[in-house]
Amino acid sequence: MNLSGGIDSALVARLSRDALGPDRVLGLLLPDARHPTALLEETAAYAEELGIEHRTIPIDPIERAFVAALPATRDRVDLGNVKARIRMTIAYAWARPLRRLVAGTGNRSELELGYFTKYGDGGVDLLPIGGLYKTQVRALARSLGLPKSILDRPPTAGLWEGQTDEGELGLAYEQIDRVLNAFADGVSDADAARSTGVPVDDVARLRTRQRDSAHKRRLPPIPPPNP
What is the spatial distance between Cα 87 and Cα 125, in angstroms, rounded to a whole number? Predict the structure, then answer.
């Protein structure tokens, strides 16, 4: 699994350690040039505290080679997707010879809104916290006593300078999760807005994002076989 220093990967590492034992969990730290040294050191220390094996592999040389081969890749979203796919490629390069599975760190809030990179952080073998909304992830992490620095850190994929999850999504996770929970009950946008206190325009935007990202949650379509 990839360890970023965020709450999702920290929780997955803890749950994996508890379920499998520390000798069966490998944490990969895959920083780019913008990754703060202090955060990298803190993440490595957390892995050591858990007792799991960890490896640090800077992705900058791979990223530079990719951009050199595809010079049109300049948009920050495109570059962010490249980074996510590089990281997952490295995870699988380690997993196969070790006969391991790649654990993903996506939570239910991210999955339902398509807030992940297809074939990047979405390309995994299992999603231990995929059934938990972000607010539930925070509650579980708090109950397990994860470090305060991890609990308090603003959620970010770290794909570009200043990027945060809530900044991109446009709402706090507490609001997002209330709306997604209302969607799960099958209510209309207007009813979701009334029950959650979230403006109906924001509810409609989340609904659109959920619908438009459905392709990320499905296997690729296959034409039916000939009779």
Answer: 14
Question: Distance between CA 117 and CA 216 in Å, rounded?
Answer: 8
Q: Which residues pair with 117 in a beta bridge?
A: none
In a domain, residue 226? The reply is: no
Q: Is residue 158 part of a domain?
A: yes
Pair 24, 93 in one domain? yes
Q: Enter the pTM of the model.
A: 0.92
The count of structural domains within the chain is 2
Per-residue pLDDT tens for 173-206? 999 999 999 999 999 999 999 999 999 999 999 9
pLDDT digits (tens, 9 = 90+) for 94-113: 999 999 999 999 999 999 99
Q: How far apart are CA 71 and CA 9, in angstroms?
A: 32
φ, ψ at 28 (rounded to 5°): -105, 125
